[in-house]
Amino acid sequence: MNVRASIGLLLALGTIACRPGDTPAPQEPAMALLAQPAHFPAQPAVPYNPTTLAGVVLGRMLFYDASLSGNNRVSCATCHHPDKAFADGVALGSGGVSGRALHRNSPALINLAWDTGGFFWDGGATNLESQIIGPLSHPDEMSRNVATLAGELSTKDAYVHHFRAAFPDDRESPVSTQNVLKALAQYMRTLVSAGAPYDQVVLGRATQSALEKQGMAVFDAKCASCHTRQTHLFTDSGFHNNGLDDTYPADDERIAMGRFRITEKPDDLGKFKTPTLRNLAYTAPYMHDGRFQTLEQVLDHYANGIRPSATLDPALRTLRLTGDERTALLVFLNSLNDQAFTQNPLFKP
């Protein structure tokens, strides 16, 4: 979407609505969520669900509302905490309706608007809207009977008002499961992290230390083939086998098989989604199953623990890290932490 055009239109409409002598309505603070970082690529268009201020405000309400769950106790924010960059801080969460531990780590929700490679660790959802239906209905997560969701929300005047504002073209039935998914997706696309010290350097507002510069050189040489820095997103939105395992059992719905579980292509065995490396200070533990508690353990894996297999990413077959390179790399990764993102009051209702 063209955010500048959208903002201009909203402001223009506000101007038209005010007559001489009227007191202008205060600008909605959430308008700031629609801004795009100047140094990021343009957001991919989503013609079937264009982001609007009203849709984002509605999605934000829904994200924190435990009544979306089967027991009225679990919200999206139960497993995606703002202060943890929308991760949950545990290896395998058990905060869902059933209380059973999940089989995969809850991923952070960062810069999802630019992700076009598929969602979940195995890419099982092609877009955010379809991804949301998974945790919403899964018995170990929110365990919601989606067939009754719209009817329940329709009994709440505040929601009816916000759905009408967000989806004015759906005059007959603005409160629908489809629009719940759309509103949540619109909100999640505004979870933009672009205020780390690294970003200040890119924008010319700060300079790197010598060690940060050294670490960035190590990163570019040894990490950027998957965690793309050129776009400043620090992910290629792809799927890679990073040598965590060399066997992939078929139990638990073939969850250890990674991308192969979706595509059934032998070349995808053991491949998982490349996460962004932004905000690592807030998103531990790491990997699709949360097996590493610290970044030092992650680097130990890449330096000494890679398990060869037929689908191991080629860039990892000869990877080596010296002690000095590790030290510098950790300093650079620390410059990708965006404290303002974890404390942004606009992300909360």
Automatic annotation (TrEMBL):
Obligatory cofactor(s): heme
* Positions bound to heme c 2: C223, C226, H227
Cofactor, how bound (note): Binds 2 heme groups.
Gene3D superfamilies from the xrefs? Answer: Cytochrome c-like domain
Where do the TM regions start and end? none
Superkingdom of origin organism: Bacteria
Domain Cytochrome c: where? 210-337
Q: Which organism is it from?
A: Spirosoma oryzae
* A GO molecular-function descriptor: metal ion binding
Organism phylogeny: Bacteria, Pseudomonadati, Bacteroidota, Cytophagia, Cytophagales
The entry's protein name is: Cytochrome c peroxidase
Checking InterPro entries in the record gives: Cyt_c-like_dom, Cyt_c-like_dom_sf, Cytochrome_c_Peroxidase/MauG, Di-haem_cyt_c_peroxidsae, MauG/Cytc_peroxidase
